[in-house]
């Protein structure tokens, strides 16, 4: 018997609504070498994608974040079972970086 699990999620859209602007104080930074999807070389885990309340994480190997809409809530970092996501202060990050370590400014 095949079981189907439904996950309630809103649908992402491009527009002004929900855009973060400049008020986010921290952002998620992914450490790809620790990500379970990268380690397994397939679309595994993706828990961060499922839990992001703003639907701004795209599935991938590793998943990626759309910083235009990320609010910096930190839920993705909390739920990641591999510790592959850390929240970093905006002041320590390059403009578009999510998959590289923050720079020291
Ligand atoms: S910090 Fe929050 S809004 Fe940003 S990607 Fe993670 S879960 Fe989504
Ligand atoms: S929750 Fe963590 S381990 Fe799982 S896909 Fe996301 S970054 Fe990778």
Architecture overview:
With 105 residues, the chain is an alpha+beta fold. The chain has a domain at 35-92: 2-Layer Sandwich (Alpha-Beta Plaits). Helix content is 14%, strand content 13%. The strands form two sheets. Strands 1-4 form a two-stranded antiparallel sheet. A two-stranded antiparallel sheet has the order 2-3. A hairpin with a 5-residue loop joins β2 and β3 (64-65). The longest helix has 5 residues, at 36-40. The radius of gyration is 14 Å and the shape is globular. The structure holds iron/sulfur cluster (SF4) (2 copies). Residues 28, 52, 54, 56-57, 65, 70-76 line the site of one iron/sulfur cluster (SF4). One iron/sulfur cluster is lined by residues 30, 35-37, 45-48, 62-63, 80, 82, 84-85.
């Amino acid at each position: 018997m095949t079981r189907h699990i439904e996950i309630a999620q809103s649908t992402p859209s491009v527009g002004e609504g929900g855009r973060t602007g400049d008020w986010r104080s921290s952002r998620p930074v992914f450490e790809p070498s620790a990500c379970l999807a990268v380690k397994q070389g397939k679309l595994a885990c993706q828990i961060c994608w499922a839990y992001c309340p703003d639907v701004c994480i795209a599935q991938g190997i590793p998943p990626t974040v759309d910083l235009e809409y990320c609010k910096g809530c930190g839920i993705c970092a909390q739920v990641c079972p591999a510790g592959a996501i850390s929240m970093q202060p905006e002041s320590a990050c390059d403009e578009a970086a999510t998959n590289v370590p923050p720079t020291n400014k």
